[in-house]
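Hi all, long-time lurker, first post. I run a small reading group and we've been trying to get comfortable going from sequence to structure in the token notation. Rather than ask abstract questions, I figured I'd post a concrete chain and ask someone more experienced to write out its structure so we can walk through it together at our next meeting. Sequence below, copied exactly:
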Amino acid sequence: MACAGPASGRQRVSMQEHMAIDVSPGPIRPIHLISDYFPHFYPFLEPVLRAPDPQAVLAPAIHSASQLQPNSEPEGDSDDSTALGTLEFTLLFDEDNSALHCTAHCAKGLKPSASGSMDTYIKANLLPGASKASQLRTHTVRGTRGPVWEETLTYHGFTRQDAGRKTLRLCVCEDSRLRRRRRAPPLGELRVPLRKLVPNRARSFDICLEKRRLTTRPKSLDTARGMSLYEEEEVEAEVSGEERGRILLSLCYSSERGGLLVGVLRCAHLAPMDANGYSDPFVRLFLHPSSGKKSKYKTSVRRKTLNPEFNEEFFYAGHREELAQKALLVSVWDYDLGTADDFIGGVQLSGRASGERLRHWRECLGRCDCRLELWHLLDSVPPQLDE
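-- Answer (accepted) --
Happy to help. Here is the structure in token form:
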């Protein structure tokens, strides 16, 4: 490095002399952590900005790092398996009544959404299956990261076959009823395979919530009426058009009245046929062949539901030998005002049927004054009339 010259009054320093000058800056100080200037953001805590401790800069780097970390991290807000909180619930497969009971107890350490709201409820779905058809939910608990529901959700028409192939999906959701926007994604979810449930024995769970699993929408649903207008993205890829729902029928041959009593009790998990994701179902009954005027009946309409309860009974006169040669055609329809009703599903009980349908029909006619109730899966095509 050279100066301007002697006239400038500065002393000229040679390169050798420059290199001999001690320019050591002193002891090496630890580099400050970036989190000291940009602390972790907790939406549920008041922001606290801390300046670097002047005494900590002289300490070893490891000691400095430990001093700058928060003393205690809020429950459920970490990167481990409990980041989204945990959910406690109990499952009971009531095989005698063909029902699955899910009792939602409480959640712990929930992580608030971006909006900061902690108004939460639990939404349940049976998979595979249409989202709306098996959707149940609890009431909303407001203003807490540890909500307590203590509410039981019941799936009627749940059989041993369902337990072997279905999974229960539970989501902790934010109640967005007061905000004019699309429903927010769940705060967390979990899935429980039901094949390991022991019938008539309750089992309790305490499981960590996970992030929502994104699924591919089946192309077969895009052409189905009302399906394309779903707001739910959770429609499973395994969904097919074969599963139309199920119906609970009661059969009893009355020796006193001399005829067959048919009870339409309820339906479960019906396929949605309307644009709102629901249906307005009713049931039609037809005893074939029959020339009498009382061979056709229909129930009342239940509005905007996929799990209607009817509890209506109808009577067909005739001897048991005569009824054994006939067929009972049961079909479920969606009522539409001003247009043709939409077929949802149907079932045929007769001596030519098979499986549970045949057993139900034979046992009913084989025993007098004995009421037999049984769930039946609905077919996707209308029952055929055999001449």
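A couple of things your group might point at:
Residues 355-366 form the longest helix (12 residues).
The radius of gyration is 34 Å.
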